[in-house]
Amino acid sequence: MNTEKWIEKSDKYIMKTYGRYPIVPVRGKGCKLWDVDGKEYLDFLGGVAVNNLGHCHSNVVKAIQEQATTLIHCSNYYQIPQQIELAELLCSLSFADKAFFCNSGAEANEAAIKLARKYSRDKTGKSDRYGIITATDSFHGRTLATVSATGQEKIQRFFDPLLHGFTHVAFDDVAAIEAAITDDTCAVMLEPIQGEGGVNVPSPGYLAGVRELCNKYGLLLILDEVQVGMGRTGKLFAYEHFGITPDIITLAKALAGGVPIGAMLATDDVATAFSPGTHGSTFGGNPLATAAALAAVRTIVEEGILNSAEEMGEYLVGELETLHKKYPVIIKEVRGIGLMIGMALTIPGGDIVKAGHERGVLLNTTHDTVLRFVPPLIVSKQEVNEMIRILDGILKEITV
Ligand SMILES: *Cc1c(COP(=O)(O)O)cnc(C)c1O
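That is the input. Now the predicted structure with pyridoxal-5'-phosphate docked in place:
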């Protein structure tokens, strides 16, 4: 089977929820992917910020192999050692005291929304205190509750009636949040840096201002770290850059080195709102996924990955800034923290992505005009240089 044959079969059997590129990756190692025809790609998308340790990191592979021969699944009616150890590790590395595990980012956000509502209800005795303020251009997932939380019309369209109780306000605007608070509000939910919305980095004081507001009005601060967590920004969690602690964070994407997992972390006080029967997940926190996550998290914190993300992030931004100076008509701005980097263009980025594919580099646009760089955190200087050389060549050929 070659690329063409796989595409034919895909068209026949796969629902069209994605506009897929004509590439069939079948093998990966580090920052490289190979397709079914043997073509090599330099991966600057990293599974959309999932492959923070690169493809098939040996520590993760070993953990999966060992766990797969020992115990793959076990019900949450029982105690699961790998899950308990992962919870302990994540709590020791964060503000949180307790963890809940599920299988995806959307599920982690669903859990956060339910926990915030239940907590507020328990605390105030008011059953109508369920409102959650989120940001315009946010992305929180594809389930109905998280679509309702997401501040993008293109994602909500066709699916109304949406879940009641979400208010969307401009990102990076503390006053807009305060103006939207009512007696019904129970929480504010934000991405510390917006991912799908175009790699939007807030002003330095924004999250501290939101934290203050939440304290003043007795609201929970939920941070969606599904994309920016797990070392992406050069710190294990993005909130650490902003000198605040949230009440709840959600994680997924890179948490288990590529194996599906989601997690919600919270303080003891907030976590007590969940009691047996209020929430759950059949697969959430299963031995296989949590063993992979334990290996991934340990590798990130013990093998200098955070430093690499910070250093390579600075290097990549520097190189992109050089391109910015060289192509000021096409490139508007380079922004980001660590290896969460966006390059805003004056034109749609689709053709640049396509040209990248032809020349062996996987690029991505988000929000149409923003090239997003979320490579594995283990990316080397040489690999950055190679991507920049290819991107330079593509930009050179564009006339606007
Ligand atoms: C990817 C993403 C999600 C959704 O995660 P899934 O695992 O696809 O459900 C939620 N929030 C943010 C910020 C994301 O980037």
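The longest helix spans residues 305-326.
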